[in-house]
Amino acid sequence: MIKALNQLSGLYVREIKTTFRSPAIIVLSIVQPLLWIIFFGSSFASAPRSFLEDFFHTDNYIAFLLAGQLSTSMLFVGMFSSLSLIQDKKSGYLRRILVTPTSNHTIFLSKVLGASTRGMLQVPIVFVGVMLFGVHIPDIFGITAFVASLFLLSLGLSSVYLFLTMKSSDWQIPTVVANFINLPLMFASTALFTSENFPPWMQTISNMNPVSFSSTFGREIIISGSIASVNWMYFFYLFIFTTSMLLIGVLIANKTLKID
Amino acid sequence: MGPNGAGKTTVIKMLTGLSKPTQGRAIVAGYDVTTHSLRVKENIGWISSEVILDDSLTLMENIWIQAKLHSLNNTWKKKAIDLLKYLELDEKDNKKVGKFSTGMKKKLEIIMALLHDPKILFMDEPTIGLDASSRRLLWRLIRKINEQYGVTILLTTHYIEEADALCDDIAIINNGKIVASGSPQQLKSRTHGDIIEIDFVSYFDYKSLEKVNGILEIVQVGLENIDLEKRTQSDHALRLRIKVGNAETILPELISKITGFQPAIINSIKIEKPNLESAFLELTGKRFEEIEEAATNDQK
């Protein structure tokens, strides 16, 4: 166990150092969520207050969007776990790791954790950004619960990406997978809008969509300002989703992760 | 040793637990590579043909990750510092390896491979793509490591002179099968044996030399085109090419026998040792130049 933790910490730190030493990644991580908030969040800036309250159950669309936007970001962050693995395959670094007594599932977990940490980088930046638009930040318990839900979502989605692309060394594959996963999961969720006006089939998807769990859970915290009145079932669903995806990923990694 | 496509890298992959053998069994450091691959990996070091490091990390960070992957205790740092000094890289520990020369990167890979005191070090064509001076430098390092750290090194190569210079035992493989194995000396003797070429100042009846133990064949040379009527004093000389198993073993008895013939005064003696290249060619059926050319094209 200690050996596995040592190996996991080594690989995880490598992921983090590689990420945080890349100026392009830092800039992208900061700018992308802010652009979402500024441009998409301003879509309803001139809408009547009654419309916002009827439709979004708040008078500030950015407050509504915040949890959804961060949840959507975790969808895209998941792709980085795949890209990181492909990079290691292409450079031969995966071979360097695999000739050490490191289990395949440790490599899998390091990639998932690395991508999720990268996703979490956006959270404080977005929080500061939305405060400028009049959004009230919840108390420390609220923030902790919200961040934990995002982290769970990120772990689960990174796992999905990674096990779907585990066998591939082709840079194009994560992009192809992203198109099939990200857009349906983003639009068939409560990330950008409530699901009340969705057609029944889309509502069904939304009700089973982990992006919806995270968006709705986070939104309840942001709008109410605390965890007092949130529905913890969403958090529980997220936990089940993430645990399942991690387990599937571990099994697939142990079976299929290898050099070309 | 073997030509391209012979199966050298596949052997390394199987012995290091990177690939599973389709059949058969391999034991490395006392562990089965299929059933106990993690145990095998604990006991081996590995250096590939290409440089594989994380260029975005510093020298010490690369070593640190290697220590983590082998779950080494805190003594790894002292070992790393010793190895850095030994390989003269100790002033580069805070520099990103992306800026290192290929030679320096190879040294770092050696340090990383030795960090956990492996019993066996696998080197998959370690000098491929290096210039002549870097190759010679790496040879010196490999010899030093073998002597200083007592680690067994299994090295694949298609450079004949590399195998000859570095290896105590060689297996020549072709199409996935070992076609010959043994020490360089044994392999050489399997093909041609040594040639002792002796120039005598005058002719004598050398047929009796064939009775000397260990002589395989005696051929008289150099007189084929000489007109016997017009020959000069020097043309009276005799040159013999004597094929033997091992020249050093046979030479004392041969000299002793020759000195029994009064007229047979030796002018010069030359020993020709068979080289690995001729052995390689005979055993694999491939010309070494073709193999090197193919490897160079692969590199490009």
From TrEMBL, chain A:
The entry's keywords: Membrane, Transmembrane, Transmembrane helix
Residue stretches spanning the membrane: 20-41, 61-86, 119-137, 143-164, 176-194, 234-253
Broad class of the protein's primary localization: membrane
Keyword ATP-binding: no
Ranges where the ABC transmembrane type-2 domain occurs: 24-256
GO molecular function: ABC-type transporter activity
Cell compartment(s), UniProt: Membrane
Pfam name, any one: ABC2_membrane
Topological category with respect to the lipid bilayer: Multi-pass membrane protein
GO CC, one annotated term: ATP-binding cassette (ABC) transporter complex
Highest taxon in the source lineage: Archaea
The protein, known as: Daunorubicin/doxorubicin resistance ABC transporter permease protein DrrB
Taxon lineage: Archaea, Nitrososphaerota, Nitrososphaeria, Nitrososphaerales, Nitrososphaeraceae
